[in-house]
Every structure is written in C-alpha cells, then in structure tokens.
Specification:
The protein is of the alpha+beta class. Among the domains are: 74 residues, no CATH class; 226 residues, tricorn interacting facor f3 domain (Immunoglobulin-like), CATH 2.60.40.1730. The protein is built from 20 helices and 24 strands. The strands form 6 sheets. Strands 4-7-2-1-13-16-15 form a 7-stranded mixed β-sheet, with no helix packed on it. A 5-stranded mixed β-sheet has the order 18-19-20-22-21. Strands 5-6-3-10 form a 4-stranded antiparallel β-sheet, with no helix packed on it. A hairpin with a 4-residue loop joins strand 5 and strand 6. Helix 8 packs across helix 11, helix 14 packs across helix 15 and helix 15 packs antiparallel against helix 16. The longest helix has 23 residues. The protein is globular. The chain starts with 18 loop residues before the first helix and ends with a helix. It binds zinc ion.
Length: 707
C-alpha cells in the first residue's frame, strides 16, 4: 500500500468546511488508491484490504457519494463550528471488521442473596436466561432525516383492507421512487419479507375442513404492477425464492428523476398457538439454547401473525430494498438477528378494518372514517424505515409527551398495570437519550404488549417496538399473589429485566431506526449500542450504584453465565448469521459489544465520549451507517495520542477473544450448583441436561401456572 499525498485530501484535524471543499475531498478519496491516516499512531489500512472487499469498498465509495449523508456531515461541521471530525476520520481507511446479533437478563444469581439456597440458585439462573430472551429483538430499520426535502424522499401511499377473522389482507401501494444513484436504471427491488423461509423449512401438511393447506408461515402475493401515470402494466418477477420482487420499468429512470407506480398485493398470516408465547415457553427456549446450544433462526411468522386476538403485520407489504449509490441491498440472510435493511421513507397509510378492531401504527391515527361496520383509519408518517401495524379487539393505549415526541404504551386490558410502568420507564429513558444523543426524526414512538413467540423477547421497528406479552407480569395481581414463595421472590429480577428491556427498545429508535445499519452484517452497531444505552439510562435515572449492579447483572453477568454454560468466547463484530442462538447473541453481541462502549467511555471520558456519539448520530441519522462511521467518530474525537488506543479498543472487543480477561471467566461455583461439567469449556452433554432439568423441575412446574 502506498501512503497518501497529504496534498490531495485533508489531514487529521483538517477538513473541508464548504460544499466545494467537501466535493474536492470526496473526489480525492475516489481518485486515490490508498486512503491513509496521517497520524503516525494509526495503522495504515485501505478499504481495499478489507476481506469484505465487495461490500465495504463499494459501500464506502457510495457513502461518499451519497448526497444526504454528505449534507448531514456538513451540517455537523457547521453545527460544531470546528471540524468535521466524523467526515475526516472516515478518511482514515481503517479496516472494518470482516465479521460481523440480543438481550441480556439479570443475573441475580451472581450478585444477590438469592444465591443462598440450593433451590433458589437454579431458579435465579433460569430467570436470568429468561431475561436474556427479553432482549432479543428484531429491528426493522428505520428512516432518513430531514436534510432531504419531501420531494426528494421515497414515499409510500398504502391502502390496506384487513380481514381480521380470516387472517388475510388486500393492499394497493403507490410508490414514489427517486433515483438517487449516479446512473439511469429501470430495475427496482422490493423485499417480500413474509415469504422468507429458514433453510430446510418444510410446510405442514395439515388441512382445513375445506381441504386448504394450513400454513404456519405468512405469505405475500403480488397481483399486479402498473404505472401510476397511465395504468399501463409493468412487468415484474419474483426472485430469491419469492422473497424479492423485481420490477422492470419500461423506461429507465435518470439520476434524480422520479417514477411512480402501483403494486397490488394480498397476504395471509398464520395463527400462532398461544402456548408458544407463554412465559414457560420463553423460559424453556432460553434454557434449551443455553444447555443444548439449540440453533435458532428468526422466522417471518415471528413478526407477521395473529395470536391471542392480536394481529401483527411487521413488514406485510412490498418494501423497497435499501440502496447505496447504484447498488441495491437486496439479499437477506436468515439468522438470530434482524434482517431487513431499508431506506427511510414517508408514509400515508389507510387501513380498513372492522369497527371492533383497534388498529395501531408507529404514529397516532390522523383521521377515522366510519362506514358500515368498518372504520377507515389514516396514518401519516415521515422518515420511517418500515411501517409496522398491530391490530386487536381489546387493545388500548396510554400516552405521554416528552418534548416533541409522543410515547405510547399499547396493551391488552389485563396488562394495564405493567403497561403503565412500561410507559413511565420509556418516558424516563426518552429524556435521557434526547439529552445525550439528540432529537429523533420521528414524532412518536410506541411500545406494544404483543404475544411474541419464545425465540423473541422483543421486536423493533421504526417508531414502534413490541415486547413479549409473557413479560408483562403483574406481581400484585391475585394470580401472582397465590404463587409459591420461590416464584414471588423473583419479582425484583423479573421487574428489573423488563425495565432494562424497555430502556433497550427505546434506544433502538436512535440506533437502528434513526441511524440505520445492516443488522445482518454488523449487528453490533444497533444491538450493542442500544444495550449500552440501557446502562446509560440506569446511570442517569437511578444513580451510579444501581448502574453498577445493572452493569454486573445485565451485561457482565450474561457473558459469564454464557461461558459457565460452556459457550465459547467470540468476536463481537461478527455477522449475525455466525451466532447460533439468542443466548450466544445476547452474550457476545449485546453484552460484550455493549461493554466495548463502556470501555471507550472510560478511555475517553464523558465529554469526548458523548461528543463522539453525538457526531456519529447526527452525521448518520436517516442514513445507513457502518462500523467505519462509528470508529471514525470516536477516533476523530480522541486526542491524537489516544487515537491508537481507541482503535485498539475497537479491535480488542470486536475482533479478538479477550472476554475472559476483560469481563470475567466462567463461574465454577455456579457450574457446580447447576451440575455442569467442572471444565467450563467442556461441551454440555445429556447428563448435564438431566442434572439441570432435575434442579429446574420444580420451577418449571410452577411456571406452567403463570402463563
Ligand atoms: Zn435490541
């Protein structure tokens, strides 16, 4: 590799301060083969050296040509009235991590008096596992931010008719698409998320009385595509096992030109067995992931279903794939993490549904029109990466206003007490994040009590997060008051876990929704940062002491428990597909990854740390960020003599296995109490499961009564 000529682009500490300067700087990057640091402390690396050659190089170049991102950077520059440190640091060309996941729970066991009796120890550990499940999430990506005027934004006008009884819907969407690339194109790609099937999936053979096959997965069918101008049919095809809709326009769309067309579609969602969504199911799933290393993969039915009188449509319509320059990000990989990467768009959504069905979306309803037996609800939203819909007979909501943002808690009536608590936590978390990170591009966020299946504790979308109903436990209810003492004494653990999870999902509106990222390739960008943000909420809402115990229980404890169960340390920067299940994902991506941010905070101090985080947020809001953007923000904010250490901190947590040194080794006492093998690295065998099942049996029996 060759060193750069400092004359061609800004040195560290310098940066273009005008549009013209940025343009020259961009050209210099594009023309130079080597992009290097002028700081002697930093390794000279090229994006070209990255093992993920095609992706990150192409992405980097496109990033630099992306108009709105450039504007955001410029805005940050102007705002800080100093230098565009983010933009400048991005020129360093460090290697992004070639590899590249969920939720933590409390480990009362490791720190509390619970660990006193033979019975309560295993119970506490199971509760910890349960808490892990809470943090699993699906982040559907969100949005884009205001630098783009409305006429330059993508726009969906969707009319949806819900047949709640039959679990079906019909829809028409009018899409306004603008070519933000550098070349004309006539081919557009949409994700058909409901059609995704995990590898090896075989459909069930069960039939209805009328002879129709009963599907356990959702389905989205495309009926026709027409030009909006004259109604002429537009040819289309289904690719990638019908998970991608490819539209072939008759005429190419020039750069910056706009095209509008209509897609007619229909869909069905499966009925999920309520048993799959109960607390017992969640506990068993977590225990199984821990002990047997069960492989878990997200399914389309996890977020597109009907269950317990609630219908969730997580991504039920054709959704434009994200685009960077002229490249489409059309590929979706099944994993334990989130899959979709999309661009922020504006939405006008009209939903016809029976009058007895309450319909909720990421934004409060704008108007409701009543017709015979049906209501037509209209929603208007800007800058969302997706548009999730939740409908149900008994759903209700309460809301609060924090600054310009409305926070809603949406729930079933029997969960009212917990839902109010959720609303209060969300409100407090929102205040902390608004002050520390900056304002959100969306005007409302909603947290929904939804019957999620046991592999998911939560699911995140733009402006809307769902938390599994299984965790809406009211310990003051008569049901819980009649539970045996060993169950009731878990109250603090369960309630703390819910609090952590609420803080985590609220943070996803900054990390995942506002700042987008590829959750399959670099899940640490949203998952770890949202998890670290929950720790920030604890620190600023409850003080240092409670934050210290949350740090121990929700982050360090999760990693140590995972290691105690025999899980191997891994690099936190790997792709989501490389993690086996929610337990591993929670321990490595969500917990170990979050601890990297804590290490960076200690290294830089609060002032520089938060300045870096704010720069990263402002520069990438409504864009799709990658690890280089994050790393660049921190390196740019650090003093010159610290930059090497900052870079090494990223490497240490993301691409090396130093977890036992940095966090803690497996806990031999816990292993012994659970009957796990003495050598923590030994693979769990059947005897282990038998031993664990024995100690946990009492707990499980009791749990069956809680559902
Ligand atoms: Zn998450």
């Amino acid at each position: 590799m060759k060193k750069h000529d400092p004359g061609y682009y800004p040195k560290l500490g310098e940066a273009p301060t005008s549009d013209r300067g940025l343009e020259l700087w961009r050209c210099s990057i594009l023309n130079c083969k080597a992009v290097a640091s002028s700081s002697p402390g930093l390794p000279l690396r090229l994006p070209w050296d990255c093992e993920q050659r095609d992706h990150s190089t192409a992405k980097r170049l496109h990033h630099l040509t992306d108009e709105s991102k450039r504007r955001n950077r410029l805005a940050v520059v102007k705002q800080r009235n100093s230098l565009p440190r983010v933009a400048e640091a991005a020129t360093l060309g460090w290697k992004s991590q070639p590899h590249c996941g969920l939720s933590p729970k409390r480990n009362r066991y490791l720190v509390s008096p619970l660990a006193q009796s033979r019975v309560s120890q295993p119970i506490a550990s199971i509760v910890l596992l349960l808490a892990l499940g809470l943090t699993l999430s699906t982040a559907a990506q969100n949005q884009n931010r205001q630098p783009l005027p409305p006429e330059k934004r993508l726009r969906y006008q969707i009319h949806l008719t819900l047949n709640f009884e039959n679990r079906t819907y019909n829809g028409v969407e009018r899409v306004r698409w603008i070519n933000r690339g550098d070349h004309p194109t006539s081919t557009l790609f949409f994700h058909l998320y409901p059609n995704i099937r995990f590898p090896g999936y075989t459909p069930p053979t069960e039939k209805t009385p009328s002879g129709d096959l009963i599907s356990d997965e959702p389905l989205l069918e495309i009926m026709e595509v027409r030009a909006a101008s004259n109604g002429a049919p537009i040819p289309f095809a289904l690719d990638d096992q019908e998970t991608t809709l490819r539209i072939n326009l008759r005429d190419a769309v020039a750069p910056s030109a706009v095209v509008e067309f209509e897609i007619k579609f229909k869909g069905t969602v499966p009925e999920i067995d309520p048993e799959e969504t109960g607390l017992l199911a969640h506990v068993v799933q977590q225990v199984s992931a821990a002990i047997r290393s069960t492989r878990e993969v997200r399914r389309a039915r996890d977020t597109n279903f009907r269950c317990r009188g609630v219908m969730m449509l997580g991504a039920a319509y054709p959704l434009l794939a994200a685009r960077s320059g002229d490249d489409w990000f059309r590929r979706i990989e099944s994993s334990i993490g989130d899959a979709l990467m999309t661009d922020a768009s504006d939405y006008e959504v009209t939903i016809d549904a029976p009058r007895i069905i309450a319909v909720y979306a990421p934004v409060p309803v704008q108007t409701v029109q009543q017709k015979e037996g049906a209501n037509t609800s209209t929603f208007m939203a800007e800058n969302l990466r997706d548009f999730a819909i939740v409908a149900g007979r008994d759903l209700r909501s309460e809301e609060k206003q924090v600054g310009e943002v409305i926070i809603r808690s949406i729930f079933r009536p029997d969960h009212e007490a917990t839902a109010r608590r959720v609303l209060k936590i969300a409100e407090d978390a929102m205040r902390v994040y608004l002050a520390r990170f900056g304002p959100l591009p969306m005007k409302s966020i909603s947290i929904v009590d939804a019957p999620l299946v046991s592999t998911m504790g939560s699911a995140e979308f733009a402006g809307l997060s769902a938390i599994a109903s299984a965790f809406y436990i009211d310990f003051d209810s008569s049901t819980m008051r009649n539970m045996p003492e060993p169950i009731r004494e878990q109250r603090a653990s369960v309630e703390d876990s819910l609090e952590w999870t609420v803080a985590h999902v609220v943070a996803h509106q900054w990390w995942g929704a506002a700042v987008g990222n590829d959750p399959g390739r670099e899940p640490v960008l949203d998952e770890a940062l949202a998890n670290w943000s929950a720790l920030l909420y604890y620190r600023e809402s409850h003080g240092e002491q409670q934050a210290a115990s949350a740090l121990e229980e929700q982050l360090r404890g999760v990693y140590k428990l995972y290691r105690t169960f025999g899980g191997d340390d891994m690099e936190a920067g790997r792709a989501a597909r490389e993690y086996r299940n929610s337990f591993q994902y929670a321990a490595i991506v969500a917990s170990k990854g979050a601890l990297m941010f804590e290490a960076l905070r200690k290294l830089l101090g609060d002032e520089k740390f938060f300045a870096a985080l704010r720069d990263y947020y402002h520069a990438n809001s409504l864009e799709v960020a990658d690890m280089d953007d994050l790393r660049g923000a921190f390196i740019a904010e650090a003093a010159v003599e610290q930059r090497r250490t900052v870079n090494r901190t990223f490497d240490r947590w993301l691409s090396s296995k130093r977890g036992d040194e940095d966090i803690g080794p497996p806990d031999p006492k816990l292993a012994a109490d659970l009957g796990l093998p003495a050598r923590a690295t030994a693979k769990p065998d059947r005897n282990v499961f038998t031993a664990f099942a024995k100690v946990g049996k009492f707990f499980w029996q009791q749990m069956t009564k809680i559902r």
